[in-house]
Amino acid sequence: MSSSFLCPDCDLLLSRMTYARGIRVRCPRCAHVIYPCRNTLNRCRAALLAALILFFPANIIPVLTVEVGFSSQTSTISTGVFTLWREGMPVVAFMVLLFAIIVPFLRLVIAGLALLPPQVLKRRGLLVMRWHHILEDWGMVDIFMLGVLVAIVKLNDFATITVERGFWFLAAMMVMELRVVQLMPVEQLWQRYHKFQVQSQ
Question: For this UniProt entry, which segments traverse the membrane (predicted)?
Fold first, then answer.
């Protein structure tokens, strides 16, 4: 393993060092946590489990109810995809399906696999970490949430918008996903899987 690495946030070149267990080490430029404290892995796993649990009601339970005149329509994220497809917007429907449902779920699953002990994944651990790196910048639940809020404001002038329970599940899932990103000890996991692969050769 190289004696140097880049800070995941600001790309500052840092030198690898051995620190006492339980010490939190931050990047001197951007204060990103390079080596988290001892309980970070458990807190990250707890946030990840919460996000996975919240993912399903966030996509199944209705998010919004729109009432225009005497007609009303209740929509979930999943039904929104089908509605866009029926309305002749397959590209938009695919984008919503990909970035609001598939990619967030894959990110959570890959993060969960990365947090497993190296003995479980063995040589596949580094592959999982590469996929985690690839998907890291593709999570757009927060952008989708912002789009929902903008739609509520815009439609409120000529329609009655009712926020349903699914909206709050979606908001809670977004918070938990951001918490996972914040707590994920990426550098520590790379080192752990690399060390396991070297020892197993």
Answer: 48-71, 91-116, 137-155, 167-186
* Domain enclosing residue 10, as ranges: 1-38
Question: Does residue 52 share a domain with residue 122?
Answer: yes
Burial letters 44-80, b for 16+ CB under 10 A, else e: bbebbebbbebbebbbebbbbebeeeeeeeebbbeeb
Please state the pTM of the whole predicted model: 0.73
Of residues 157 and 38, the one with the higher pLDDT is 157
CA distance 52 to 108: 7
CB 186 within 8 A of CB 36: no
The predicted-structure confidence for 58-111, as pLDDT tens digits, reads as follows 989 988 887 777 777 788 888 888 888 888 888 888 888 888 888 889 999 999
